[in-house]
Amino acid sequence: MTAIVPRHRIGILGAAGIAPRSIIQPTRRRQDATIHAVASRRPGSARAYADTHAIPAAYESYEALLADPAIDIVYNALPPAGHAEWTLKALAAGKHVLCEKPLAMHAREAATMVAAAGQAGRVLAEAFHDRYHPVFLHLLELRQSGALGAIRGLVAEFHVDIPFDPANIRHDPAQGGGAMMDLGCYPVHWLRSFMQTEPAVISARATPTPLGVDQRMEAELVFPGGIAARLIADIADPPFRGLLRIEAENGVVELDNPCLPHKGHSLREWLGGGYREHTLAGGTTYDYQLAAFIDAVERGTPLPTGGTDAIGNMRVVDAIYAKAVAGGSLPPRA
């Protein structure tokens, strides 16, 4: 039997805890791609990570990984502060890039990255994996079919339990920490993706940590037509939970766990005078994301989580922070 030779070799920037479930396992469920290398600047970390996850090559610098001609796709799993620099360098090295969210530290960086991908003729996507899952596609179909009627209001919430620790990058302002950066970018994306338009930020209020980043953020948005949306993101509020609630002319739809529906979710639909509670079968969000990314690399298929979408998401995140700073609940961002 002839062995199948993978067409794509993936290099991982950062010995990241998220990578096994987000890229390593999905890749190993495919025959057209393989995890070829990992890079970390911490001495010995890349080799230990490579040994743990059976990755052939380990590099002690990001530059060395980008110089590897065998790699055609880079997964940027670095903290947000490293997204722009190393994505730009990966694109310049001729690699396609799947970059962890949020794509950048702010919208200006995101625009620079998107422009560089276009100039290089390479695919750049932001890793909003949930957007590719059948559960979110179901919500889009409900709207596009007219089953919901006019949209009247939305609520998007995301809560986790990451107790304050100044050594944790999620609480480090220099690394892009904070509730909006780590979690809130997801609810922003849920709302924008569902509405398929851009909101204005009306107000925002943060609960700051001792390091001056937002442990909790609450924001009020409004979409064209006066459709109001409420957003909450909290990185120290157990248990893990997420919610997207859609209030419409013909009823209400609620989705529990929009981020990781393959870990368990519930769709509740009060429509047309009836009630339905159900789930949708499917693979992991990460499998759908990788399939779409490889399809974009091979066929140029447009992605819903790159380009102008990525810039738009960062603009809303920036605007929420600006309102929180203007209101005095957060110090100015660097």
Radius of gyration: 20 Å
Query: Can you tell me the CATH topology of the largest domain?
Result: Dihydrodipicolinate Reductase, domain 2
Q: What fraction, in percent, of the residue positions are helical?
A: 25-40%
- Highest-level CATH class of the largest domain: Alpha Beta
Strand order of the largest sheet: 8-9-10-7-11-12-13-14
Mass-distribution shape: globular
**Strand coverage percent:** 25-35%
Helix and strand sequence: EHEHEHEHEHEHEHEEEEEEEHH
How far is the N terminus from the C terminus?
58 Å
**How many domains comprise the coordinates?**
2
Q: So how many helices? A: 9
CATH architecture verdict of the largest domain: 2-Layer Sandwich
Query: Largest sheet, if any?
Result: 8 strands, mixed
CATH homology-level superfamily of the largest domain: Dihydrodipicolinate Reductase, domain 2
Determine the structural class based on helices, strands and strand pairing: alpha/beta
Residue ranges: pLDDT <50 for 5 or more in a row? none
Mean pLDDT: 96
Q: Quick one: how many beta strands? A: 14
